[in-house]
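Customer escalation, tier 2.

The customer says the design service returned an amino acid string that "doesn't look like it belongs to this structure." They asked us to rerun it and document both sides in this ticket. The original structure tokens are below, unchanged.
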């Protein structure tokens, strides 16, 4: 399943963290399942000063 992420990084943050919390054990698993490039998510969320924390499995 392809995932259409919003261009707005704040909205993307909400969607990605919800998916990670509810359905995926890692960011890699989410990206693989949804056919989304990990670097696109990481770069977009970095632009609003959020980074992926693998221990919490969320962007913080």
């Amino acid at each position: 399943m392809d995932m259409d992420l919003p261009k707005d990084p704040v909205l993307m943050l909400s969607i990605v963290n919800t998916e990670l919390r509810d359905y995926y054990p890692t960011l890699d698993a989410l990206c693989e399942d949804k056919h989304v490039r990990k670097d696109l998510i990481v770069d977009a969320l970095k632009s609003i000063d959020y980074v992926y924390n693998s221990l919490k499995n969320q962007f913080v």
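Tier 2 assessment: The sequence is consistent with the input. The CA atoms of residues 17 and 58 lie 5 Å apart. The chain has a mean pLDDT of 96. Sent an explanation to the customer and offered a walkthrough call.
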